[in-house]
Amino acid sequence: MLEVSNLACNRGDHRLFSGLNFTLNPGQIMQVQGANGSGKTSLLRTLCGFIAPDEGDIVWRGEHIRDLDGDYYAELLYLGHLNAIKDELSALENLRVSAGLSGVGIGEKEAMAALRRMGLRGRELLPAKVLSQGQRRRVALSRLLVSDARLWILDEPLTALDVGAVTLVQELIAEHLARQGMVIFTTHQPLQVAGLEMRSLSLS
Fold first, then answer.
1. What is the mean pLDDT of residues 2-18?
2. pTM of the model
3. Fewer CB under 10 Å: which end of the chain, C or N?
4. Which H or E element spans position 153?
5. First to last CA, the chain
6. Are 90 and 126 in contact (CB under 8 A)?
7. 191: helix, coil or strand?
8. Is the separation of the CB atoms in 120 and 142 below 8 Å?
9. Cα angle for residues 159, 89, 85 (degrees, 5° grid)
C-alpha cells in the first residue's frame, strides 16, 4: 500500500502543489492530471524519492520511504517521459543494461522475448540511433516485461506510440494490476484498462 499525506512541492518560490492526500492499494491504478507546469512530473519524481517533498509524508507498506532506501526502490519501476536510451547500444543491450541498473539481471533469451513482444522483432541487435522514436519508446517500455516491481510509476508512457503499441501497453498494465500490482501514470493520450476503475488526481 502507498499512502501519501499532506504532500507539498515547491519549484523555487512557486508552490506546485500542496495538501495532496491519497492511498493506492494493490490492484489499483491512478492517473495524475493537470496542465503543463502543474507539477505532474515533479509529483511522480517525488513519489519515487528522487525529490524530497517540502511538506508531507510518503509511506510504503507502513514505513516512510526515506527509511526504506533500497527496499523501496526494489519494488518500484519508474519510466520517465524521456527514454534514457543510449544511441550506441543495441535495443538488446539497452534493455539488459537498464534492467541491471535497476537491480534486475536478465539473460539474453528473456530480453529478446521481451523486445519481440514489444514489436521489435528483427531490430533487437540494431543500434538505438537507427530506430524511430516509437521504436525507441518500445525499447524503454520493454522494461515492464522483465521487472518484478510492485509499483509502476509511468510518466507519459504512450508518447510516440502507434495504436498497436498503445493497445499492448494497456494489456501489460492490465496484467500487472491482475497480479495485484499498482500503477500511477500521466498521459496526454487516452489510456483505458478494461474492467477497472481509473482513479484520478488533478493538479491545478
1. 91
2. 0.92
3. C
4. strand 151-155
5. 25
6. yes
7. coil
8. yes
9. 25
- Grid cell for residue 136: 525507441
* pLDDT one-digit tens code per residue, 129-173: 999 999 999 999 999 999 989 999 999 999 889 999 999 999 999
Contact 74, 150 (CB under 8 A): no
What cell numbers appear for 151 in the block? 509499483
Q: What are phi and psi of 45, to 5 degrees?
A: -70, -30
Q: Which amino acid is at 124?
A: E
Can you point out the beta strands (E) in 62-126? Answer: 63-64, 76-79
Residue 119 phi/psi, 5-degree rounding, is 85, 25
Grid cell at residue 73: 526502490
**Residue 48, SS3?**
coil
How far apart, in Å, are the Cα atoms of 141 and each of 53, 80, 174, 197?
A: 27, 10, 15, 23
